[in-house]
Automatic annotation (TrEMBL):
Belongs to the tectonin family. One of its GO terms (molecular function) is carbohydrate binding. PANTHER family: DYSFERLIN-RELATED, FISH-EGG LECTIN-LIKE ISOFORM X1-RELATED. It comes from Larimichthys crocea. This is Fish-egg lectin. The keyword Isomerase does not apply.
Length: 259
């Protein structure tokens, strides 16, 4: 698998010249989803097993069959194939009673956001997320309807993709109350959006193309435009942390890209 990944990346560099330089990352067979935050990288494979990257080796985390896993300031969280929510506590995943979620994100300032199985957006306040150790029911705060993917950063706000693949933005969320400003429609279309801890934003389109939001500042947190990141492989999923863009191709190849 690694040899194939290296060969494909060499071919990519011969065919494409761009600001982002990608190399083969440690490979995880049948990888489907990846998330990076606070210097950690987690992923899940086609069998719904969850892993963490330690050095150059993927180590399995626990036994729940998770379809989405996330890591960030709020810890490691996931949603299983039955849409139950889990938090990784003291070396094992603990199920959290409350809402059923199909996607969760821990990239905000301690709060957890996500979408339910029927595509409603919710937020778990930071102090509730931090206090959860495996017992009791979690109380989520409603934040939006018809979201298929939801991601927040600790600096400039939250981004989302709705069920019609439209892109939305809201200014910095208050982590202790999950309070937000109104949602603003952003040009473009995507199947997923990810926000880095430094406010950097990337999307993946249904066609497997990657775009980065440019012009993001504290005074204009929604940015100004999209810039395409040229890749010769069709991309399925990505995440960004500490100046590294982690991408998973539709063929299951993991790459780490830097500028």
């Amino acid at each position: 698998m690694k040899a194939v990944a290296v060969l494909l990346l060499v071919m990519c560099h011969l065919a494409v010249s761009h600001a982002w330089k990608c190399r083969a990352a440690p490979q995880l067979p049948t990888i489907v989803q990846i998330d990076a935050g606070q210097g950690k990288v987690v992923a899940r494979d086609a069998s719904y097993s969850v892993y963490m990257l330690c050095g150059t080796t993927w180590f399995k985390l626990g036994s729940p069959r998770l379809k989405h896993v996330t890591v960030g300031p709020g810890g490691i969280w996931g949603a299983d194939t039955s849409n139950r929510v889990y938090k990784y506590v003291n070396g094992q995943f603990r199920v959290a009673s409350g809402l059923y979620m199909q996607q969760v994100d821990a990239g905000g300032d301690g709060q957890i956001v996500g979408t339910t199985y029927n595509y409603y957006g919710y937020c778990l306040r930071s102090y509730l997320a931090a206090a959860f150790t495996g017992t009791g029911s979690l109380s989520w705060t409603y934040s939006s309807i018809y979201l298929r993917y939801y991601s927040c950063g600790p600096l400039y706000g939250c981004w989302a993709v709705d069920t019609s693949f439209r892109i939305w933005f809201t200014k910095k969320m208050v982590p202790t109350s999950c309070g937000i400003s109104s949602w603003k429609r952003i040009s473009g279309a995507a199947k997923m959006v990810e926000v880095g801890t430094d406010g950097t934003v990337f999307v993946v389109t249904r066609g497997g193309h990657v775009f980065q939001r440019t012009g993001i500042t504290s005074g204009r947190p929604q940015g100004t435009s999209w810039t395409k990141i040229k890749m010769c492989l069709s991309i399925h999923h990505l995440s960004y942390d500490q100046s590294r863009l982690w991408v998973v191709s539709k063929g299951g190849i993991v790459m780490q890209c830097t500028q």
